[in-house]
Write a structure and sequence with these properties.
The protein is α/β, with parallel strands linked by helices and 276 residues long. It is built from eleven helices and eight strands.
Length: 276
């Protein structure tokens, strides 16, 4: 098996940790992790990296607020708005001018946001979003349950159970999620966006995302889990009907098959990444 190397780079002014595996001369695939408490690139993507690395050059950054990357939060903009340019800076710093991108959950949403951005900030040649909708179609009760995490083994188990179809064999994953959630600044960075000024009421500005997505011509694969507890059923077909080169596919898994069924996910997405 191909083990990734853990590295750091200064990207966009921020210390950024990332995984790298595979031959740098091969086609690059950038993996963008989810947004749950305790996530890192390794926790989200580790087994998938091992499946992709024999064929691709794999890069997987820790996003701002997670893992070994700076615990930075902007409170005057959306969680996508400052992370899209950070990943763009990461790619630029590493000389990535063309790559396939795969995102899971929040990472998939971040990918769709970057795709829909008229400025084309990421060098995306083809894209896979696993349970990432760009923001719409989230179930309020699921969002609330994810946000209710309190650092403990049991809390990490409950949170992970929201992401996968089966917890069997994930004890080490759960233990690592808990330990990751104790890293200095991580919990605080996750909590900070929930702060509200009691003297004001904020009205979200209009969001052009769905209209912008309709102009995207990049090949896009949307992966939906039939057992997903966090998203509305049918979201992938709804989004695929809006983007010009998008395909929706349903699986028998839950929100993040990259965690509990990485081999099945690899078998699903590899032909797309190869351009077959």
């Amino acid at each position: 098996m191909t083990q990734p190397t853990v590295k750091t780079v200064h990207a966009g002014g921020y210390t950024t940790a990332y995984l790298e595996a595979g031959d740098p001369a091969a086609t690059t695939v950038v993996l963008v992790h989810d947004g749950a408490y305790g996530t890192t690139a390794q926790l989200c993507w580790g087994p998938l990296v091992e499946r992709l690395a024999p064929e691709f050059h794999v890069l997987a950054p820790d996003l701002l607020g997670w893992g070994g990357t700076d615990k930075v939060v902007f409170l005057d903009r959306s969680p996508y708005a400052f992370r899209v340019p950070h990943v763009a800076a990461f790619c630029e710093e590493l000389g990535v001018d063309s790559a396939a991108f795969v995102g899971a959950s929040f990472g998939g949403s971040l990918l769709l946001r970057a795709l829909a951005d008229p400025g084309s900030p990421w060098p995306v040649t083809r894209a896979v979003s696993v349970s990432g909708t760009g923001g719409p179609f989230r179930l309020p009760e699921g969002t609330a349950a994810l946000g209710a995490y309190e650092p403990s083994i049991e809390g990490a188990r409950t949170l992970t159970g929201l992401l996968v179809a089966d917890l069997e064999g994930l004890d080490e994953h759960i233990e690592q999620r808990y330990r990751n959630s104790l890293v200095a600044g991580h919990f605080e960075a996750m909590q900070a966006p929930g702060l509200k000024n009691p003297a004001t009421t904020r009205t979200p500005p209009p969001d052009p995302f769905l209209d912008q997505l309709a102009t995207v011509e990049t090949p896009l694969l949307l992966v939906e889990g039939r057992r997903d507890q966090l998203l509305e059923t049918g979201w992938s077909k709804e989004l695929a009907g809006r983007a010009l080169a998008a395909t929706a596919v349903e699986t028998d898994y839950a929100h993040e098959p990259n965690i509990d069924a990485p081999d099945a996910l690899a078998d699903l997405i590899l032909p797309f990444l190869r351009g077959e």
